[in-house]
Amino acid sequence: MVSPGKVCGGYTGDMPPRYARRDAPPLFPATTPRLPVSHADRGKAWEAMLDAQHRRYAADRWIVWRQHPPPVITGEGGREARIIGPARPDYLLCRDGVTVIVDAKSHAGPRWPLSEVSDHLAADLDSAQRAGVVAGIVLELDDAGWWLPWTELAPRWHRWALATARGETERGSASLSVADLQAVGEAVIGADWLPVALRGQHLNR
Question: Which whole-number Å values give the CA distances from 158 to 66, 114, 118, 127, 191, in the listed order?
Fold first, then answer.
């Protein structure tokens, strides 16, 4: 039995107050119509919000590493490079014996496609889960933020991936609605996902 205020691995920071699940609050409240934004631009805007939030975590003694695809230098003077392997999950955070591995996703529309989790990303999150660290997806869907723990998301993703490989995909199983996201994860306020992820880890122990 873990006492309140203790998550895992010796972490004894104050836990955020528990609160009931709710509909995800809008990240970008709109008072005027917005022009369509490209998928790439949405992703960059979400990552910029996360990077700003992560600087606040770093000020609270968290180590926050942004992970990039592995490059190799190919040009003279180090001016050219090429990618030599798949990207790892976007962020790794550590503090007081707690390790968190998370990938950021952004999507416009009422449903989030499971195909946005690649095979190699799923394998990395599976490995993280087996190692006992906190792992998941921090998702922006239609201007709302969500924390999706891999412990809950993985069974759905693996069922979909297996059915897809067999050509047996059922209608509606290839993506998650807001109701599905509520069943799998929890809404976050703005880009502040870490307290939700740690509380979920605490309640599951």
Answer: 26, 10, 11, 14, 27
